């Protein structure tokens, strides 16, 4: 078995961090933990469910990505690209830029190491 390159490990860790942020954001929304979140319970609840679901999807795809599944590679490229674009649908602040970097860095590393995700 081929040894995993350091850049692949960094990619997987950054994607895991992104998934955990999505889940934490969803939990914070569900418990109304910040006054800046929407006041409408239906909107807040829907945002919480979608955030936790997004984090769970990323975790599932990350699991298969770690097993070097080519389809997981393609799905993760799409997920990271869409998550990067969604940031621009709202006002962009410092937190948004940090999350954008957290999506773009693994996206670039995935593309750089694309050959590793296609097992021989």
Enumerate how many helices there are, as a single number.
Answer: 4
Number of domains: 1
The beta-strand count equals 0
Largest sheet: none
Indicate the percent of residues in helices.
Answer: over 70%
Which term fits the overall shape? elongated
What structural class do the secondary elements suggest? mainly alpha
Average per-residue pLDDT, rounded, comes to 91
Structure description:
72% of the residues lie in helices and 0% in strands. The chain has one domain (6-114). It starts with 5 loop residues before the first helix and ends in an 8-residue tail after the last helix. It has 120 residues and is mainly α.
Which SSEs are present, and which pair or pack?
Elements: H1 6-30, H2 41-66, H3 70-86, H4 94-112
Helix pairs in contact: 1-2, 1-4, 2-3, 3-4
């Amino acid at each position: 078995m081929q040894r995993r390159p350091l850049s692949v490990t960094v990619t997987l860790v950054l994607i895991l961090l992104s998934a955990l942020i999505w889940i934490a954001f969803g939990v914070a929304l569900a418990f109304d933990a910040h006054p800046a979140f929407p006041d409408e319970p239906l909107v807040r609840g829907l945002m919480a469910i979608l955030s936790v679901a997004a984090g769970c999807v990323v975790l599932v795809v990350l699991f298969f990505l770690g097993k070097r599944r080519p389809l997981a590679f393609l799905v993760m490229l799409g997920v990271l690209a869409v998550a990067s674009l969604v940031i621009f649908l709202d006002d962009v602040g410092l937190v948004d830029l940090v999350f954008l970097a957290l999506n773009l860095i693994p996206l670039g590393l995935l593309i750089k190491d694309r050959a590793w995700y296609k097992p021989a």
